[in-house]
Amino acid sequence: MKAGTLQDLYLEQLKDLYDAENQLIKALPKMAKAASSAELRNAFEEHLEQTREHAQRIETIFEEMGEKAKGQKM
């Protein structure tokens, strides 16, 4: 997608960020399960909750812009 305006560029970057957050939401539980210590597992689980909050914030931005929340696939 070629960005024509600053809003197009912003939306493109937002989609990319949303996709990255969702990839992390899928990967972090696997990382927590494979963690070798309880401290590391807890850190992954905490990061997962923070990442879910980030994704929710991005969804809110999409909503406020009148756009559908979707990731930018590379």
Output the keywords:
74 residues, mainly alpha, elongated, 0% strand
Protein architecture, described:
The protein has 74 residues and is mostly helical. It has a domain at 36-68. Helix content is 77%, strand content 0%. Helix 1 packs antiparallel against helix 2. The chain starts with 5 loop residues before the first helix and ends in a 9-residue tail after the last helix.
Portion of residues in beta strands equals under 5%
Q: What's the tally of helices?
A: 2
The mean pLDDT is 92
Q: Helix and strand succession?
A: HH
> What is the terminal-to-terminal distance?
10 Å
How does the major sheet shape up?
A: none
Number of strands: 0
Quick overview:
The chain is mainly alpha-helical and 74 residues long. It has 2 helices and no strands.
List strands and helices in order, with pairings.
Blueprint: H1 6-34, H2 38-65
Helix pairs in contact: 1-2
